[in-house]
Amino acid sequence: MKIMDMKVETVKIPLKKPFRIAFAVQDHSVNVLVKITTDEGIWGIGEAAPFEPVTGENTATVLEVLKLFRQGLIGMDAMNIEGIHRMMDRLISGNTSAKAAVDIALYDIRGKAMNQPLYKVLGGADNTIITDMTIGIDAPERMAEEAKDRVERDGFTVLKVKAGICPADDIRALTLIREAVGPSVRLRVDANQGYTVNDAVRTLKAFEKIGVEAVEQCLPWWDMEGAAFVRSKVNLKIMLDESIHSPMDAARACRMGAADLLNIKLMKCGGLYPAEKINAVAEANHVQCMVGCMLESKVSIAAGASFVAAKSNVTEADCDSFMYAVDPEMGMPGGFTVDGGVYTLSEEPGLGLSFDF
Q1: Can you list the alpha helix ranges (DSSP code H) found in 238-271?
Q2: Which is the most buried residue in 143, 201, 221, 351, by most CB within 10 A?
Q3: Which residues, 6 or more positions from 319, have their beta carbon under 8 angstroms from its beta carbon?
Q4: Per-residue model confidence (pLDDT) at position 58
């Protein structure tokens, strides 16, 4: 099944309100959709959601890199996903969201060729997942109000709370959120590299008393030694996100005892093919994984959710970002349905999305 062409289109995703984390504020995202067509008439769609502080890319660089990839892709076998990744890696290092766009489109093609939904192509049998909902940084009182709405109005049972600017505000926000949502809602925190080692230990000990179950990326991405130290001093789970871009990063984190959980993001690692490698490394070292996301549309969210459904070692999901958009559907029906924090994946082949461009 030879690749005949790759079409590229940008899409702007305005958000309902600005989304604030420790090192950035976003009110929109400009993503890139790709469509790969084959000589058998089967086509697949993928998405790049670049984020400069994490992947080092922006929309303009993704578009240029995809031009480069297009030259290599034409004439290749669409089922040769490993070979295509090898080609992309030889052409340029990094640029992982651009690679993820190609990768997701290829898995969409594979599912359509097999006449199977992606979660089954990836080896799974269960078509449902439970995702958290993320609460961005704001005044602690407003964060608690939003958390209560997400639980009582929207039906979420797991919340991820952004933190990392001011430890005292973080502790107050989590205290108010716990009071607002009650004891049964699962809480985890994402500090997005915002703490020092000393701040992390002190703040996480306060989070323990509030009933926070896990804290993600307390320290700068490069400080795995610090993460291992913090992990040795606290009684909640430590997750790494920005530290984990590749299977080699996963192996290092596991060797150092730096994490209880690894956050796999398709945009950060380059797609489903490298995500499988990261999960395999983690599972071999008895470390569980979560699948997270950037500010993405339903295209790559459907891919990430399918990966969660397929892999028993991926025990958590943070696949909520498309819901921040003014129009979450964005003219992209299918893929999965949403009931609170429960996603039910489509039984249609591939990503199960019924739109074209």
Answers
A1: 247-256, 266-269
A2: 351
A3: 129, 131, 291, 292, 293, 301, 304, 305, 308, 343
A4: 96
Helix (H) or strand (E) holding 33: strand 24-38
Residue with tokens 């020092």: 196
The three-state secondary structure class of 355 is coil
Looking at the chain, the number of H-run helices and the number of E-run strands are: 13, 14
| 3-state SS class at 230 | helix
Compute the distance between CA of residue 124 and CA of residue 9 in angstroms, rounded to an integer: 31
Statement: residue 23 has pLDDT above 90: no
Calculate mean pLDDT across residues 225-243.
98
> Which residues have C-beta within 8 Å of that of residue 163, sequence separation ≥ 6?
22, 137, 170, 173, 174, 189, 190, 191, 192, 194, 203
- Catalytic site residues? 162, 190, 216, 241, 265
Domain-by-domain residue ranges, the chain? 3-115, 120-345
Name, in order, each residue with C-beta under 8 angstroms of 63's C-beta and a sequence gap of 6 or more.
8, 10, 32
The confidence score (pLDDT) of residue 301 equals: 98
- Using H for helix, E for strand and C for coil, what is the string for 54-70? HHCCCHHHHHHHHHHHH
Distance of alpha carbon 193 from alpha carbon 209, whole angstroms: 22
The pTM for the full model equals: 0.96
Give percent of the chain above pLDDT 90: 96
Fold (topology level) of 3-115: Enolase-like; domain 1 (3.30.390)
- Per mean pLDDT, which range of 22-36, 53-67, 229-243 is the poorest? 22-36
Q: Which of 10-19, 95-104, 193-202, 305-314 has the lowest mean pLDDT?
A: 10-19
User: Quick one: which of 25, 92, 87, 101 has its CA closest to 59?
Assistant: 101
Per the prediction, the chain carries an average pLDDT of 97
**pLDDT confidence of 308, banded at 50, 70, 90?**
very high
The CATH class, in words, for 120-345 is alpha beta
Q: Could you tell me how many residues make up the chain?
A: 357
